[in-house]
Design a protein that fits this description.
Number of helices: 2
Helix content: under 10%
Strand content: 35-45%
Shape: globular
Number of strands: 26
Largest sheet: 8 strands, antiparallel
Order of helices and strands: EEEEEEEEEEEEEEEEEEEEEHEEEHEE
Length: 385
Amino acid sequence: MRSLLARLPRRPWTAVLTAAVLSASALTVLPASGAETGCRVDYTVNKWTDGYTAQIKVTNLGPALDGWRLTWTYTGDQRVTSAWNATVTQTGGSVVATGTSWNGALPTGGAAEFGLQGTWRSADPAPSDFALNGVPCGGDGTTPPTTPPPTTPPPNADCGDAVICSDFEDQTGSAPSGDWRFTAPDCQGTGTAAVDTAVAHSGSRSLRIDGRAGYCNHAFVAATADLSSVGPVMHVRMWVRHTTALPSAHVTFVSLPDTSQSGRSLRVGGQNGALQWNRESDDATLPEQSPAGVALSRPLPTGSWQCLRFAIDTTAPGLETWLGDEQVPGLHADGVPTQDIDRQWLARTTPPRPTALRLGWESYGAGDDTLWFDDVAVGSAPIGC
């Protein structure tokens, strides 16, 4: 059993999602576990092939509660991978959600809302046995809608309350400035960074990196924002365009200094022609650089803008990665080791705690590239493409 905190998502939100809304009606029951006269649960699910998100609203119809605990059972093969505004744990099909410090109290008539993301393979029936602090929320817990539910739009691609939300339109010169600063973390060579007004994903400006091969050619632009409080799941969204296919040698184009590694970085880049995660402290990769591992990753397409998104669990060694409309299976870590994929990555059990974001280029062998970054966002909630 592992605890997953979040607010993280699914297969990219650009897909059309079908919403099913299920309500557990109030039920008067005998006193038990602090909830005496029932509750109501509204369960709205958006699902796609192999994945889903659920928005859950629990309304307390009994006496005021100092803390709430909502339970239910999945009868299909659903597995919760992340959650937000609640602490969610799953053992087998049994799921438990508990309130946070800011929504843990439920007065009579009060409601708490939270969400979760998960996966499924063969079956994903809606849960039918919601209980609040041990008391059933009514009947079988699922009152089907009498009319087709409206389609719930995917999460907005806007940044919302994200700590970083940059389209680089505020850059006035050719050198990164303001909230973005050039840096060469270990050593500087001939790699460069500039604000580009000729190529952009949106607006008229982007960040351009001319990366050069060789270890001492670090060229990054770092956001000045402090990310140490973003979470419990950190969501990162960026649009990236690059010129040359990822090489067989190891390269990095996203670097996140990580206090769990004493300031060394959690890195995103490529090796053997495919995307990978890399941990600087022990050089572990996700996926492992086995034929099976590399096959489950994806190349980064060249010559076009690509939406790249990550979800980094700061409470457990969990990671999710999406490229365009696809959740990349080889760039997924859920705490359960898979031979040739993530055993090396999961050998370290300390959760990551990124504190900053750097965009650029770092090569450990052959590999020049020119990259552009635009519409970059980092926050505690999922951000669409």
